[in-house]
Amino acid sequence: MTTQRAGKPRQAAVAAWIGSALEYYDFFIYGTAAALVFNKVFFPASDPATGTLLSVATFGVGYVARPVGAFLLGHVGDRLGRKKVLVFTLMLMGVATFLVGCLPTYDQAGVLAPVMLVLLRLLQGLSASGEQAGANSMTLEHAPAHRRAYYTSFTLSGTQAGQILATAVFLPVAALPEEALLSWGWRVPFWASFVVVVAGYVIRRRLEETPVFERQKATGSVARLPVAVLFREHWRDVLRVVQASFIASVSTIFTVYALSYAVNTVGLDRSSMLWVGVLANVVALLALPLWATLADRVGRKPVFITGSVGCAVLVFAYFAAISAGNYPMIFLVGIVMFGVVYSAANGIWPAFYGEMFKTGVRLSGMAIGTQIGFAIAGFAPTIGAAIAGTGTTGWIPVAVFTAALCAVNIAAVATARETFRVPTEDLGVRPTRTPDTDVTVT
């Protein structure tokens, strides 16, 4: 019995890593295609600047569905279990992404083409809304109390791996002649998501439910409406997670807006800019568990805030390097900012957010809080494209906007409770005092 329980954290972490890698491969190939191809395939009637804006906006549309999906899938996960959510989200993402690769272009179907593109992007967003919260809840509740940040960081490592795969797949595709790229080349990465449908079912159907959820289910203490309990007892935590999740804007600005700005505005080499993303994410795979291990020793807040402050500063250096066309500096700053510094915040939030909530509302709290915050971050590239100026300094408003979102994140994290020493069964349970005594009751 002891051996079996000792293996559960590793099994949950590996399943979360593989599932997240497959899930976010699908999610991020859309972002890459939106930055490089969709403005010509689905919006050719627009002028180049407007076409780019509309194309990037379809990336943000996926984030609109995420808050809605968070309420639905959060309810399912806290009522019926984490496993059911994880199987459903992966299957839905795989099917929606495959169908994007089958869409007709604007020249073939007119306005119907971008309409169908948006609808499938909404399904992608619905899937993503429950993926990370479900995987993070699963790994956190299986993990030893003193290593919760380490094990939950595997979910984000999987996300980074998916982003690497998404970008790497586009490297040979982006090198195709323009005619081949726009006719069939861009479809190949989307068709490859068929693997997700098969692999997702095989991997996640074998997952075991978490012990704390099983105990809650056995005692009949599962709430009929977890969301009601969540907003009655944890509304401050939900609001804090929303604000803290603005840090995700660094990711969307880096992977979508900065790529589009570099290629379409500055005229930098498409393949070189894709390689920046690949190498930064490779470094992140190494940095994430290291930052998480540090957070298990010194606490969540100092590590998280270090990452947020660093990103607010380095985003200026990254855009300046792009604007100057300085490839060595682009690679250096991009890798340091996104691969190392951003990982300090990115690797900690799965444990930090999940530890704010008790078992009965954890998946709902994480899903709703993060997805509202991520929805704002998802539109950061669209806002960036709208507020960008002209000339060699046109990037400055975008960098200021990104830094401002980081500042909101820093304030939210700084005012949160530190939870790295709290036992798992006591997470989200606030001590109260009885009216007639000075005895603390939990």
TrEMBL record:
Protein keywords: Cell membrane, Membrane, Transmembrane, Transmembrane helix, Transport
Subcellular location: Cell membrane
Transmembrane segments: 12-33, 53-73, 85-106, 184-203, 241-260, 272-291, 303-324, 330-353, 365-388, 394-414
UniProt keyword Hydrolase present: no
Bilayer topology annotation: Multi-pass membrane protein
Residue span(s) of domain Major facilitator superfamily (MFS) profile: 12-421
InterPro entries associated with the record: MFS, MFS_dom, MFS_sugar_transport-like, MFS_trans_sf
Cell inner membrane recorded as keyword: no
PANTHER family according to UniProt: SHIKIMATE TRANSPORTER
Name of the featured protein: MFS transporter
Provenance organism: Saccharothrix xinjiangensis
